[in-house]
Structure formats: C-alpha cells, structure tokens
C-alpha cells in the first residue's frame, strides 16, 4: 500500500508570491490534515479536511487556505508569501479523522 | 487554551537503559493521545497511541501511560537501542470531535553507545 505522497518535495519562492502544495493520501483515507513545522514553533496544526469539507482549522492567517477533492487528494495554498512562511509543510491522512494519522515526507518551502 | 507541554527537550541515555518523556495537556475533552518519532529528513511516524478509556498500553519495548485526572501522559522506552535516536513528539486531540491534533514541542533523544 503506497504511503502519503507530497509534491513538490522542495520549493523556493520569493516574498509576495503564492504557492500551492499537493498531498495524496493513502488509498481509502478520507481525512487529510496539514501541519507547518519550524524549528522555533514546532509542529503546528493548519487545518483538517474530511469529505471535501474543512472540519477544523488552526490559528493561521487567511493567507493559508486549503481544499480537498472528491478523490481525497488535498491542496494547500499560501498567498502573499512572507519570509516567516519558510517551513516544512506536512500532510497526514487517516481513515476518518486525525486518529492514527500517517504523515507524508513533507514539502520544504523556502521563501527568499 | 489548547496546549500540550512536553519535557524534556533533550534526553541522552546509555544504550540499554530506559528513556521517559512526559507530556501534559490542557483540554479536558481530549480523548486521543498519539506519540510520533521523527527521523532526520522524514515525516513523523506514529509509534504508539492511547485513548482516554485506557490507562496504559504496551508494544514491545514501548509503553504509554495516561493519567486523565492529572492530564498527564508519558512515553517509556526500555532497553534503548541506537536506532531509537530521533525526535519524539507527543500529541493530543482537542475537543470532543477529535478532528484537531495539537503537538508537544518535541524531545530529541540520543542513545549513547
């Protein structure tokens, strides 16, 4: 069974640009959660989607948004990038909720 | 507020000894407590989890205990091996719907040969 995949693995952008990250969950998993990981703030919850609906979100500005498609694949978008958005963005999937989540390898975003 | 505190931030133990990592959580409605291991360059990997209706769970050399009254939970690794060296995160679900997981700040565990 294939694991969670995230694309791209590495990304370099400049301030003010926007970026879209993609996550393909494990087959059969309907819940996808996104996290931001930085050395200073650790692992922070961004949002969780289930059956194309956002069920919960963390304390991030509106520049961070996401969506989930009917095949459970998910994307997150960050608009008007800031230097502080440089981080590892992790996606995790589970059958029906954050219980027993399986993480992907992450997308390393660098904002210059 | 929604918070999970984790201690210690770094831990060094002799190979073969035990390691203990402790966490506390703030939300009395939390009912799911996973532990993750993260190796360099990889995403976190679920190693064990416990639900609020259970006080202890074991899986080979790893065990987790939960004290709901005190809002404490701990990870115990016995007979540590070099491959146990990694960063460990505790986490707790927030709210009764459990659709939000908050992570502790992590513990860097080093196993001395």
Briefly note the structural class of the backbone of chain A: mainly beta
Largest sheet of chain A: 7 strands, mixed
- Count of individual helical segments of chain A: 0
CA-CA gap between termini of chain B: 41 Å
In angstroms, what is the radius of gyration of chain A? 13 Å
Described by strand count, sense and barrel closure, the largest sheet of chain B is: 6 strands, mixed
Query: Biggest interface and which pair forms it?
Result: A-B, 25 and 24 residues
Which stretches of chain A of 5+ consecutive residues score pLDDT under 50?
A: none
Helix content of chain A: under 10%
Q: What is the count of β-strands of chain A? A: 11
Write a brief structural summary.
By secondary structure, chain A is mainly beta. Chain A has no helices and 11 strands. Chain B is mainly β and 113 residues long.
Structure description:
The complex is a heterodimer of chains A (112) and B (113). With 112 residues, chain A is an all-beta fold. Chain A has strands spanning 5-7, 10-13, 19-24, 31-38, 42-50, 53-57, 64-68, 74-78, 87-94, 102-103, 107-111. The radius of gyration of chain A is 13 Å and the shape is globular. Chain B is mainly beta and 113 residues long. Chain B has no helices and 11 strands. In chain B, the strands form 2 sheets. In chain B, strands 2, 4, 5, 9, 10 and 11 form a 6-stranded mixed sheet that branches. Chain B has a 5-stranded antiparallel sheet with strand order 1-3-8-7-6, with no helix packed on it. In chain B, a hairpin with a 7-residue loop joins β9 and β10. At the A-B interface, β4, β5 and β10 of A face β4, β5, β9 and β10 of B.
